[in-house]
Amino acid sequence: MNTNDIKKYKERYIHFDFVKLPGILRTHLIPGPVSFADLGCGDGPWFNLLHQQGFISEARPVYAVDLDNTRLERITTRFPWITTIVGSVESIPNIPDQSVDFVISTMVMEHVFNEKKYLFEVRRILKPSAKAYITTVFKRKWAVFYRRHKGEFVLDTSHIREYTDMEGFQKLINDCGLKILDIKLVQLKIQIFKPIFRIWKRRKRSINLGLRLLLMPKLPIPGYYELEFVVKRQE
Fold first, then answer.
1. pLDDT per residue as tens digits for the range 164-175
2. Strand, helix or coil at 233?
3. Distance (Å, whole) CA 56 – CA 37
4. Is 199 a residue whose pLDDT tops 80?
5. Which of 66, 71, 46 is nearest to 56 (CA)?
6. Domains (ranges, CATH) in the chain?
7. How far apart are CA 16 and CA 45, in angstroms?
8. CA 79 distance to own-chain centroid
């Protein structure tokens, strides 16, 4: 993601704190506190929920990695004990080898220039028994959306790739030394009133009941899915 893409991303996407763990993530999380890393964390929407539920704390190392220092500063304001790292998720020398119990990296893989370097870096920092929860964009070849890039429908013009071949995708994961433990496709939907929040600037990352109700109405995006998967290091 280049400088212009980061600027557009910062203006277009505001990350609210998550209030519920996805089922596949809940299944594979281990009791905390754990050593933890969020790769491509943005505003850090996972941290508050994970902290409240005891999965992360000051007792174990927690890393937040992102290209945008402004977003990381927001995390530091809320969680001064989290180690923030400005940089690409394709190379994170600040995180030692085999030092992390759990990794989360959501909707990042479609943005990285070198997907294999990214996956090998996930593998490098995982402890032998550790797991990673990763999500990315998957679409059917007939998928349609209102955005287009190079003559094709795309979910976001900043995406370097959008995966269409499940068999090829699973081979990619395997070739990078990771074993898939769980995998799931979830229909992607667009929030009808989301454009309101692109111009409504807020400092708080929490979302009250009124805003949550406004964000509830959603329409499915034909042929587009969030691909969730959990991996561990191959033995």
1. 999 999 999 999
2. strand
3. 10
4. no
5. 46
6. 3-233 (3.40.50.150)
7. 6
8. 19
101 has pLDDT over 60: yes
Q: Is the Cβ–Cβ distance between 28 and 182 less than 8 Å?
A: yes
Q: Are 12 and 42 in contact (CB under 8 A)?
A: no
Say if CB 41 and CB 63 are below 8 A apart: no
pLDDT at site 6: 46
Q: Which residues of 49-67 are buried (b: 16+ CB within 10 A; e: fewer)?
A: ebbeeebbeeeebbbbbbb
Supply φ then ψ for residue 23, to 5 degrees.
Answer: -55, -45
The pair of structure tokens assigned to 142 is: 């007939």
CA distances (Å), origin 173, targets 48, 52, 229? 29, 32, 10
Residue 190 has pLDDT above 90, yes or no: no
170 C-beta neighbours (distance < 10 Å), count: 13
pLDDT per residue over 7-31, tens digit each? 455 444 566 788 899 999 999 999 9
Q: What CA–CA distance (Å, rounded) separates 72 from 75? A: 5
| Residue 94 in this model has a pLDDT that exceeds 70 | yes
* C-alpha to C-alpha distance for 72 and 66, rounded to whole angstroms: 7
Cα 86–Cα 100–Cα 229 angle in degrees, nearest 5: 90
Tell me the two tokens of residue 158.
């900043």
Round the average pLDDT of the chain to a whole number and report it.
87
